[in-house]
Amino acid sequence: MVTSIDSKVVQLGSYKVKKGDSSISGLSSGAFMTVQLHLAYSSSFSGVGVIAGGPFRCVESFSPAATLPEDAYVQNALYICMNPLVPQTGPSAHKLAQLARETATAGEIDAIDHLADDRVYIFTGSEDKVVFSDVVSRTRNFYELLGVKPANLVYHDDVPAGHSIITDNPEDSPLATNQPPYINQGGFMQSHDILRHIYGQLNPPVEQLTGRLVRFDQTEFFGGEPRASMSKFGYAYIPKAVEEGTAEARVHIALHGCKQGYNYTDYVYGRADIANQPPYGNRYITTTGYNHIADSNDIIMLYPQAEGADGNAAQNPEGCWDWWGYTSPTPKRPDYYSREAIQIKAIHDMLARLGG
Protein backbone atom coordinates (compact mmCIF):
# COMPACT_ATOMS: atom_id res chain seq x y z
CA MET A 1 0.00 0.00 0.00
CA VAL A 2 1.74 3.14 -1.22
CA THR A 3 0.37 6.69 -1.24
CA SER A 4 1.53 9.41 -3.64
CA ILE A 5 2.10 12.92 -2.28
CA ASP A 6 0.75 16.14 -3.77
CA SER A 7 3.82 18.13 -4.84
CA LYS A 8 2.44 21.52 -3.78
CA VAL A 9 3.05 23.02 -0.34
CA VAL A 10 -0.20 24.18 1.25
CA GLN A 11 -1.41 25.74 4.46
CA LEU A 12 -2.97 23.15 6.74
CA GLY A 13 -6.74 23.45 6.31
CA SER A 14 -9.79 23.25 8.56
CA TYR A 15 -12.57 20.68 8.28
CA LYS A 16 -15.71 19.41 9.96
CA VAL A 17 -14.23 17.32 12.77
CA LYS A 18 -15.81 15.51 15.70
CA LYS A 19 -14.50 17.16 18.86
CA GLY A 20 -12.86 15.03 21.54
CA ASP A 21 -12.61 11.94 19.33
CA SER A 22 -9.13 12.38 17.93
CA SER A 23 -6.41 9.80 18.55
CA ILE A 24 -2.65 9.29 18.35
CA SER A 25 -0.22 6.49 17.69
CA GLY A 26 3.54 6.29 17.46
CA LEU A 27 6.61 4.10 17.30
CA SER A 28 9.64 4.42 19.58
CA SER A 29 10.26 8.13 20.28
CA GLY A 30 6.90 8.67 18.60
CA ALA A 31 5.38 6.27 21.15
CA PHE A 32 6.91 8.14 24.08
CA MET A 33 5.57 11.37 22.54
CA THR A 34 2.18 9.71 22.03
CA VAL A 35 1.89 9.10 25.77
CA GLN A 36 3.05 12.64 26.58
CA LEU A 37 0.65 14.25 24.11
CA HIS A 38 -2.17 12.03 25.33
CA LEU A 39 -1.74 13.14 28.93
CA ALA A 40 -1.03 16.77 28.11
CA TYR A 41 -4.28 17.15 26.13
CA SER A 42 -6.33 14.15 27.23
CA SER A 43 -9.58 16.10 26.81
CA SER A 44 -8.92 16.13 23.04
CA PHE A 45 -8.31 12.40 22.59
CA SER A 46 -10.27 9.16 22.84
CA GLY A 47 -7.49 6.66 22.31
CA VAL A 48 -3.84 5.91 21.59
CA GLY A 49 -1.57 3.30 20.06
CA VAL A 50 1.83 2.84 21.69
CA ILE A 51 4.42 0.75 19.81
CA ALA A 52 7.64 0.25 21.78
CA GLY A 53 7.25 3.22 24.10
CA GLY A 54 7.57 3.83 27.82
CA PRO A 55 5.40 5.71 30.32
CA PHE A 56 4.96 9.46 30.87
CA ARG A 57 8.07 11.28 32.15
CA CYS A 58 9.92 7.98 32.05
CA VAL A 59 13.36 9.58 32.42
CA GLU A 60 12.29 10.91 35.82
CA SER A 61 11.78 7.46 37.35
CA PHE A 62 15.01 7.88 39.30
CA SER A 63 17.31 10.72 40.25
CA PRO A 64 19.40 11.93 37.32
CA ALA A 65 22.25 9.56 36.51
CA ALA A 66 24.70 12.33 35.57
CA THR A 67 25.95 15.46 37.27
CA LEU A 68 25.39 17.83 34.33
CA PRO A 69 21.71 18.72 33.75
CA GLU A 70 22.08 18.49 29.97
CA ASP A 71 23.41 14.90 30.29
CA ALA A 72 21.24 13.59 33.12
CA TYR A 73 18.08 12.65 31.29
CA VAL A 74 19.96 11.31 28.27
CA GLN A 75 21.59 8.75 30.56
CA ASN A 76 18.27 7.89 32.16
CA ALA A 77 16.66 7.53 28.73
CA LEU A 78 19.28 5.02 27.64
CA TYR A 79 19.65 2.93 30.79
CA ILE A 80 16.22 3.18 32.42
CA CYS A 81 13.73 3.72 29.60
CA MET A 82 15.31 1.77 26.74
CA ASN A 83 17.78 -0.88 27.91
CA PRO A 84 17.68 -1.27 31.70
CA LEU A 85 20.38 -3.65 32.89
CA VAL A 86 17.94 -5.48 35.17
CA PRO A 87 14.17 -5.08 35.65
CA GLN A 88 14.71 -3.29 38.96
CA THR A 89 16.37 -0.40 37.14
CA GLY A 90 13.50 0.04 34.68
CA PRO A 91 10.86 2.77 34.97
CA SER A 92 8.61 2.82 38.03
CA ALA A 93 4.98 2.78 36.92
CA HIS A 94 3.76 3.68 40.42
CA LYS A 95 6.09 6.66 40.76
CA LEU A 96 5.30 7.93 37.27
CA ALA A 97 1.54 7.55 37.76
CA GLN A 98 1.80 9.64 40.91
CA LEU A 99 3.99 12.14 39.07
CA ALA A 100 1.33 12.38 36.35
CA ARG A 101 -1.32 13.16 38.97
CA GLU A 102 0.91 15.84 40.47
CA THR A 103 1.59 17.29 37.03
CA ALA A 104 -2.15 17.50 36.38
CA THR A 105 -2.78 19.11 39.78
CA ALA A 106 -0.12 21.70 38.91
CA GLY A 107 -2.08 22.54 35.75
CA GLU A 108 0.67 21.50 33.33
CA ILE A 109 -1.45 18.76 31.72
CA ASP A 110 -5.18 18.00 31.49
CA ALA A 111 -7.06 16.30 34.32
CA ILE A 112 -6.32 12.58 34.70
CA ASP A 113 -10.07 11.82 34.80
CA HIS A 114 -10.22 12.22 31.01
CA LEU A 115 -8.29 8.96 30.59
CA ALA A 116 -10.91 6.71 32.18
CA ASP A 117 -12.89 5.95 29.00
CA ASP A 118 -10.00 6.12 26.54
CA ARG A 119 -8.95 3.09 24.52
CA VAL A 120 -5.28 2.13 24.68
CA TYR A 121 -3.34 -0.24 22.40
CA ILE A 122 0.19 -1.17 23.55
CA PHE A 123 2.62 -3.36 21.62
CA THR A 124 6.13 -4.66 22.19
CA GLY A 125 7.87 -7.10 19.89
CA SER A 126 9.44 -10.02 21.73
CA GLU A 127 12.61 -9.52 19.63
CA ASP A 128 12.87 -5.76 20.23
CA LYS A 129 16.46 -4.93 21.19
CA VAL A 130 16.02 -1.13 21.13
CA VAL A 131 13.28 -0.59 23.74
CA PHE A 132 13.04 -3.66 25.93
CA SER A 133 9.66 -5.31 26.44
CA ASP A 134 9.91 -4.93 30.21
CA VAL A 135 9.91 -1.15 29.74
CA VAL A 136 6.79 -1.27 27.56
CA SER A 137 5.02 -3.47 30.10
CA ARG A 138 5.38 -0.60 32.57
CA THR A 139 3.39 1.58 30.17
CA ARG A 140 0.51 -0.86 30.53
CA ASN A 141 0.86 -0.71 34.34
CA PHE A 142 1.01 3.09 34.19
CA TYR A 143 -2.29 3.39 32.31
CA GLU A 144 -3.94 0.83 34.59
CA LEU A 145 -2.87 2.83 37.64
CA LEU A 146 -4.40 5.97 36.13
CA GLY A 147 -7.78 4.29 35.75
CA VAL A 148 -8.01 3.10 32.15
CA LYS A 149 -10.62 0.34 32.13
CA PRO A 150 -9.26 -3.21 31.58
CA ALA A 151 -11.70 -3.77 28.71
CA ASN A 152 -10.34 -0.69 26.94
CA LEU A 153 -6.67 -1.67 27.13
CA VAL A 154 -4.98 -4.28 24.96
CA TYR A 155 -1.36 -5.34 25.38
CA HIS A 156 0.51 -7.45 22.84
CA ASP A 157 3.92 -8.98 23.60
CA ASP A 158 3.75 -12.31 21.79
CA VAL A 159 4.80 -11.34 18.26
CA PRO A 160 8.51 -12.06 17.49
CA ALA A 161 9.02 -8.59 16.04
CA GLY A 162 12.01 -6.33 16.28
CA HIS A 163 11.79 -2.59 16.87
CA SER A 164 9.28 -1.62 14.20
CA ILE A 165 5.79 -0.88 13.02
CA ILE A 166 4.47 -3.99 11.30
CA THR A 167 3.00 -4.21 7.80
CA ASP A 168 2.03 -6.85 5.27
CA ASN A 169 4.22 -5.28 2.57
CA PRO A 170 6.49 -8.00 1.11
CA GLU A 171 9.27 -5.47 0.47
CA ASP A 172 9.62 -4.45 4.13
CA SER A 173 12.29 -5.78 6.50
CA PRO A 174 12.08 -9.27 8.04
CA LEU A 175 9.93 -9.35 11.17
CA ALA A 176 12.72 -9.65 13.77
CA THR A 177 14.85 -6.83 12.32
CA ASN A 178 16.04 -4.09 14.68
CA GLN A 179 17.40 -1.67 12.08
CA PRO A 180 16.12 1.31 10.07
CA PRO A 181 13.73 2.00 8.53
CA TYR A 182 12.00 0.16 11.42
CA ILE A 183 9.13 -0.99 9.19
CA ASN A 184 8.92 -4.81 9.28
CA GLN A 185 6.86 -7.35 7.39
CA GLY A 186 4.71 -9.45 9.70
CA GLY A 187 1.66 -10.40 7.67
CA PHE A 188 -0.71 -7.74 9.04
CA MET A 189 -1.15 -3.98 9.03
CA GLN A 190 -0.57 -2.83 12.59
CA SER A 191 -1.98 0.60 11.79
CA HIS A 192 -5.33 -1.03 11.01
CA ASP A 193 -5.33 -2.94 14.30
CA ILE A 194 -4.62 0.26 16.21
CA LEU A 195 -7.44 2.21 14.59
CA ARG A 196 -9.90 -0.66 14.99
CA HIS A 197 -9.09 -0.92 18.68
CA ILE A 198 -9.56 2.81 19.19
CA TYR A 199 -12.69 3.28 17.08
CA GLY A 200 -14.32 -0.16 17.01
CA GLN A 201 -15.69 -1.67 13.82
CA LEU A 202 -14.39 0.16 10.75
CA ASN A 203 -14.97 -0.18 7.03
CA PRO A 204 -12.31 -2.22 5.22
CA PRO A 205 -9.40 -0.24 3.79
CA VAL A 206 -9.75 0.95 0.20
CA GLU A 207 -7.61 -0.47 -2.57
CA GLN A 208 -7.43 2.86 -4.39
CA LEU A 209 -7.22 6.11 -2.45
CA THR A 210 -9.76 8.82 -3.21
CA GLY A 211 -8.34 11.64 -1.09
CA ARG A 212 -5.15 13.71 -1.09
CA LEU A 213 -1.89 13.41 0.82
CA VAL A 214 -0.79 17.02 1.23
CA ARG A 215 2.46 18.61 2.32
CA PHE A 216 2.03 21.66 4.55
CA ASP A 217 4.32 24.24 6.10
CA GLN A 218 4.55 23.24 9.76
CA THR A 219 6.97 26.03 10.75
CA GLU A 220 4.00 28.29 11.55
CA PHE A 221 3.17 25.96 14.44
CA PHE A 222 6.54 26.21 16.17
CA GLY A 223 7.67 29.63 14.97
CA GLY A 224 10.62 28.16 13.12
CA GLU A 225 12.54 27.87 16.40
CA PRO A 226 15.64 25.65 15.99
CA ARG A 227 15.22 24.13 19.46
CA ALA A 228 11.95 22.54 18.32
CA SER A 229 13.96 20.16 16.11
CA MET A 230 10.98 19.95 13.74
CA SER A 231 11.07 19.88 9.95
CA LYS A 232 9.85 22.58 7.60
CA PHE A 233 7.08 20.35 6.26
CA GLY A 234 4.43 18.12 7.78
CA TYR A 235 1.95 15.87 5.97
CA ALA A 236 -1.77 15.16 6.16
CA TYR A 237 -4.08 12.74 4.36
CA ILE A 238 -7.53 14.21 3.69
CA PRO A 239 -10.26 11.77 2.57
CA LYS A 240 -12.36 13.01 -0.35
CA ALA A 241 -15.66 13.14 1.55
CA VAL A 242 -14.01 15.16 4.31
CA GLU A 243 -12.47 17.63 1.87
CA GLU A 244 -15.82 18.05 0.13
CA GLY A 245 -17.53 18.70 3.46
CA THR A 246 -20.01 15.84 3.15
CA ALA A 247 -18.60 13.83 6.08
CA GLU A 248 -17.71 14.61 9.68
CA ALA A 249 -14.15 13.49 10.30
CA ARG A 250 -12.04 12.21 13.12
CA VAL A 251 -8.31 12.94 13.27
CA HIS A 252 -5.55 10.43 13.91
CA ILE A 253 -2.01 11.67 14.52
CA ALA A 254 0.74 9.22 13.51
CA LEU A 255 4.16 9.96 15.00
CA HIS A 256 7.22 8.42 13.38
CA GLY A 257 10.18 7.19 15.39
CA CYS A 258 13.85 8.13 15.31
CA LYS A 259 15.49 8.10 11.86
CA GLN A 260 12.05 7.97 10.18
CA GLY A 261 11.30 11.62 9.36
CA TYR A 262 10.96 12.56 5.70
CA ASN A 263 14.33 14.36 5.62
CA TYR A 264 16.28 12.43 8.24
CA THR A 265 20.00 13.10 7.90
CA ASP A 266 22.72 11.03 9.54
CA TYR A 267 25.30 13.01 11.47
CA VAL A 268 28.97 12.02 11.63
CA TYR A 269 31.25 13.92 14.01
CA GLY A 270 28.66 16.69 14.28
CA ARG A 271 28.30 17.24 10.53
CA ALA A 272 25.55 16.11 8.19
CA ASP A 273 26.57 12.98 6.30
CA ILE A 274 25.01 14.03 3.00
CA ALA A 275 26.88 11.40 0.96
CA ASN A 276 25.41 8.34 2.68
CA GLN A 277 21.69 8.87 3.07
CA PRO A 278 19.33 5.96 3.72
CA PRO A 279 16.51 5.82 1.14
CA TYR A 280 13.67 5.92 3.65
CA GLY A 281 12.04 9.16 2.55
CA ASN A 282 8.32 9.19 3.22
CA ARG A 283 7.82 5.50 3.92
CA TYR A 284 6.23 6.00 7.34
CA ILE A 285 3.73 8.35 5.72
CA THR A 286 3.04 6.40 2.54
CA THR A 287 3.47 2.66 3.17
CA THR A 288 2.32 1.83 6.71
CA GLY A 289 -1.36 1.45 5.78
CA TYR A 290 -2.86 4.32 7.74
CA ASN A 291 -4.14 6.23 4.71
CA HIS A 292 -6.06 3.38 3.12
CA ILE A 293 -8.15 2.63 6.19
CA ALA A 294 -8.48 6.34 6.97
CA ASP A 295 -9.89 6.93 3.47
CA SER A 296 -12.79 4.52 3.92
CA ASN A 297 -13.64 5.78 7.42
CA ASP A 298 -13.42 9.58 7.06
CA ILE A 299 -10.34 9.84 9.25
CA ILE A 300 -7.88 12.67 8.64
CA MET A 301 -4.30 11.45 9.06
CA LEU A 302 -1.83 13.97 10.46
CA TYR A 303 1.90 13.25 10.18
CA PRO A 304 3.99 15.85 12.06
CA GLN A 305 7.71 15.61 11.34
CA ALA A 306 10.68 15.80 13.68
CA GLU A 307 14.10 16.64 12.28
CA GLY A 308 17.62 15.67 13.19
CA ALA A 309 19.63 18.48 14.78
CA ASP A 310 23.10 18.47 16.26
CA GLY A 311 23.91 21.97 17.43
CA ASN A 312 23.65 24.41 20.29
CA ALA A 313 19.86 24.78 19.98
CA ALA A 314 19.00 21.06 20.07
CA GLN A 315 20.94 17.83 20.53
CA ASN A 316 18.84 15.41 18.49
CA PRO A 317 20.97 13.91 15.71
CA GLU A 318 18.63 10.97 15.04
CA GLY A 319 15.49 13.04 14.49
CA CYS A 320 13.64 11.73 17.56
CA TRP A 321 10.64 13.30 19.26
CA ASP A 322 11.56 14.83 22.60
CA TRP A 323 10.91 12.60 25.59
CA TRP A 324 14.04 13.43 27.61
CA GLY A 325 14.14 17.24 27.52
CA TYR A 326 16.37 18.38 24.67
CA THR A 327 13.85 21.08 23.65
CA SER A 328 13.55 22.53 27.16
CA PRO A 329 14.83 26.13 27.37
CA THR A 330 16.26 25.43 30.84
CA PRO A 331 17.77 21.94 31.36
CA LYS A 332 17.31 22.17 35.13
CA ARG A 333 13.57 22.77 34.63
CA PRO A 334 12.54 20.52 31.73
CA ASP A 335 9.08 21.06 30.24
CA TYR A 336 9.15 18.51 27.39
CA TYR A 337 6.00 16.78 28.71
CA SER A 338 3.65 19.73 29.33
CA ARG A 339 0.97 21.50 27.32
CA GLU A 340 3.46 24.32 26.73
CA ALA A 341 6.31 22.09 25.50
CA ILE A 342 7.25 23.37 22.06
CA GLN A 343 6.65 20.09 20.20
CA ILE A 344 3.49 19.13 22.08
CA LYS A 345 1.94 22.57 21.63
CA ALA A 346 2.84 22.60 17.94
CA ILE A 347 1.21 19.22 17.29
CA HIS A 348 -1.90 20.13 19.25
CA ASP A 349 -2.15 23.43 17.37
CA MET A 350 -2.07 21.43 14.12
CA LEU A 351 -4.94 19.33 15.46
CA ALA A 352 -6.85 22.47 16.43
CA ARG A 353 -6.34 23.90 12.93
CA LEU A 354 -7.82 20.76 11.40
CA GLY A 355 -10.84 21.24 13.66
CA GLY A 356 -10.17 18.64 16.34
Automatic annotation (TrEMBL):
Top-level lineage group: Bacteria
InterPro entries with a match to the protein in the record: AB_hydrolase_fold (IPR029058)
Record keywords, A-Z: Plasmid
Entry protein name: Poly (3-hydroxybutyrate) depolymerase
UniProt organism field: Polaromonas naphthalenivorans (strain CJ2)
